[in-house]
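Thread: quick sanity check before group meeting

JM: Hey all, I'm pulling together slides for Thursday and realized we never actually wrote out the predicted structure for the chain we discussed last week. Dropping the sequence here so it's in one place. If anyone has concerns about the input, flag it before I start.
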Amino acid sequence: MTPRTTKLKDASKPKQTDKVKTTLGKLAAADQALTRLAQRALPTKPAYHIAKLARLASVEIELFYKQRNDLIKELGEERDTTPQEKMMGHQAKVMQVLPANEETYQARLQELSDIEVTLPWAPIDLEALGELVIMPADIIALGALLKDAA
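JM (edit): ok, ran it. Output follows.
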């Protein structure tokens, strides 16, 4: 009789069934924090994991911003930038939602933000990042992209 051996699963590898389930609004809110995290020096495996998650998220985030901008164009008008906006690097003209359309804009933006999204990749495991220091605000922003928060 041959002895049976069992192979222990490597806890550092994401399961094929692990996916990030979130909303477009939460994903857009995580955009800058995810970008900052992706720019950090990390060991190869966590760096790859974050890079792939960032790539998958960027597709959805880009669609969110395009839809939001289309909504602003539909419900707004072009106006000159203020001196303060010019100092912040804005163009000579900006789009602004008309006050009469603000309620409609907010309702439709909320509808867009609430759309559920599933990214076919496991959330970020904070333990795999080792001693990396992450700002608490970034952890809050990353939300559902983190294994501990998922």
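AS: nice. The chain has five helices and four strands. The beta strands are 20-23, 76-80, 93-97, 116-119.
JM: adding both to the slides.
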